[in-house]
Design goal:
This protein is mainly beta and 278 residues long. It contains six helices and 18 strands. The chain folds into two domains: 62 residues, no CATH class; 205 residues, Fumarylacetoacetate hydrolase, domain 2.
Length: 278
């Protein structure tokens, strides 16, 4: 199952992506809510699995496949090659930081360059979507808490990130979390530990990696995070990025007005975001 939100910005409604068509869930379930924590808590995630309606080919905007998550938690340096390109050792325990939920962006929406950063960079990442409230869940049971996975571009304002002494502002400018195109349930993922990730800028491949090289695997991440922090339905855990980001290149390659960033994960989907100025 591939769960989406579609429609004008601020007026998105839930749907399913099937092949090259869309199932509008509001036509089947008149009282279905938006895809927020309540969507999962009220059992809608299970109910929609019974949706039996043909998909329609429609030219529509896709929004981020979630609305209003309580948390977007990210892992830093979770690929050894990315740690090395920045001159760091691989971490001995997870490095966690957060992005503001207001940074969420659609899978094809523009990334607007902020006034507060001149060094805007890309990071392709596999993102995990939590499907039910969980705390102190063992790694062996962690996937029972997962609704699905999706693609995130952890867009980063590097001068703000490094200059502030902590990462929150540089990671949280408006539009700095393109997400989607769909939340893909785990039954549609062949091997979550063997997915290829790629990022392209203006058609040039900048990042190539594979989830088999994650230092901290998804079950461990969930166990580690929820030991003393409740994960809520709709929360996002973005699992880290492989090497090839722009800031550590010689010379650095940074996003400019007119750039197009494409982030792909095998079997999950693709984000294509143009970059524009203020």
């Amino acid at each position: 199952m591939r769960l989406i939100r579609f429609g004008e910005k601020g007026k998105e409604r839930p749907g399913l992506l099937r092949g090259d068509g869309i199932v509008d869930l509001t036509r089947i379930f008149r009282d279905i809510p938006d895809i927020t924590a309540a969507f999962f808590e009220q059992g809608w995630f299970e109910r929609i699995k019974t949706a039996d309606a043909p998909a329609e080919k429609r030219e529509v905007r896709l929004g981020p496949p979630l609305a209003g998550p309580s948390k977007i938690i990210c892992l830093g340096k979770n690929y050894a090659d990315h740690a090395r390109e920045g001159g760091f050792e691989a971490p001995e325990k997870p490095i966690l930081f957060s992005k503001a939920p207001s940074a969420l962006n659609g899978p094809n929406d523009p990334i607007v360059l902020p006034l507060g950063s001149r060094q805007v960079d890309w990071e392709v990442e596999l993102a995990v979507v939590i499907g039910k409230r969980c705390k102190r869940v063992d790694a062996a049971d962690a996937f029972s808490c997962v609704a699905g996975v999706t693609v995130m571009n952890d867009v980063s304002g590097r001068d703000a990130q490094f200059g502030d002494g902590q990462w929150f502002r540089g990671k949280s400018f408006d539009g700095f979390a393109p997400l989607g195109p769909a939340v893909v349930t785990l039954d549609e993922v062949d091997d979550i530990d063997n997915l290829e990730l790629n990022a392209f800028v203006d058609g040039v491949c900048m990042q190539t990696g594979n989830t088999r090289n994650l230092i901290f695997k998804i079950p461990f991440m969930i166990e580690y995070i929820c030991r003393d922090m409740t994960l809520m339905p709709g929360d996002v855990i973005s699992t880290g990025t492989p090497s090839g980001v722009g800031i550590f290149r010689e010379p650095p390659v940074l996003l400019q007005p007119g750039s197009v960033v494409e982030c792909r994960i095998e079997g999950i989907g693709t984000l294509v975001n143009p970059v524009i100025g203020q």
